[in-house]
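tool=predict chain=A
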Amino acid sequence: MTNTHKVITVGLMSVLLGMFGCDRKSIEQKFNAKPTFEEQLETFKHLGFILNPGIDTADITRWAGGHKEFEDHPYQLMYQALGSINELEPWISLTNRCWDFDLEAIEDHGAYVYIMENISRITNGDLVFKDIQDYVDIEEGKAWVSFTCNGDNYKWDLRVDDDWTDGELFDKVQALAQKYKTNGKFTFFNTGGQDFVLGYHTPEELEKIRKATGLDIVWLKAEGQIY
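tool=predict ok
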């Protein structure tokens, strides 16, 4: 751009600012403003993150900081919240599009049944696990989970490390998605804590989510991500 063009552009901007009663500071403040709680929720709604029956915004804003905490951590906290379970019986998932999972979750029999049920839940019927059974004995150092999927029988032996989940389980379910050529694949979002958000999206859906939110959601490859 030549100096003449720069002068003209600046002049036009000044005229427009004067016409609409705006100053540069207010425009910059608006441009740099973080999205509000409502704007973030609406963005995710347009991306297909619909609240389950029985869930409302009160189930999302249980963090002590309220709306401000969501605005201080734009989209990240909202994504985690939409993958969580509400804190009142009957323990409803806020949405079925992702799952915020705390890896320190293995205490007794049934733990891996619960995990497999939730992994299946977010696939929108692409991966249905039936006849899920597990065995967990921390002191014995033994754990496994078995199930059927698409008529095939599986039994996976799992590592025991106190109450920590065997992260390799997630690579194994990603391999199932590849084996059965499902519409979507599993995704990973690092929260910076001992939890992570497991998603399940098509490449097109993932691109839209990343573009709309700026979140660094990547394809799941649990080795190197969570173990």
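Residues 3-32 form one domain. The first helix runs from residue 3 to 19.
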